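Appendix B, Record 12. Input sequence as logged:
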Amino acid sequence: MATVKTKPAAKSKSDAGSATLHGLKPYKETKKEEYMNENQREHFKLILKAWRRELMEEVDRTVTHMKDEAANFPDPADRATQEEEFSLELRTRDRERKLIKKIDKTLVRVEEDDYGFCDQCGVEIGIRRLEARPTADLCVDCKTLDEIKEKQITGG
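Logged structural output:
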């Protein structure tokens, strides 16, 4: 008896961009759904926790890498190259450490029902913006104004 092989169904264009941050699908709102309801908060908790887990895995990889690769090279140029590589890696991990703190603060805000609203004007930040930047605490308008002010102050 011959077996028939079937090709997997081709992905539609809507499937192609359906995965968002950390492999989770975008939240699909219903028409009369209240903003930042329990389902939405749970969705963002999952995103934030997955992001935090990925960052922590990077920390573990860095520690392992630095232990495994640490060598006392006799050549000063080789030693300097390794030190520069480690320095860059540690700087990246430091930025990620700060991001983990921000994620933790954001998770507290989700738990306290204080998530998804602009800290300056109080309007809804929006599901799509939060999916793009889950730690956002300003709406697009307030963030834009902050950036304009910062450019004026720094002259950049």
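The chain has five helices and no strands.
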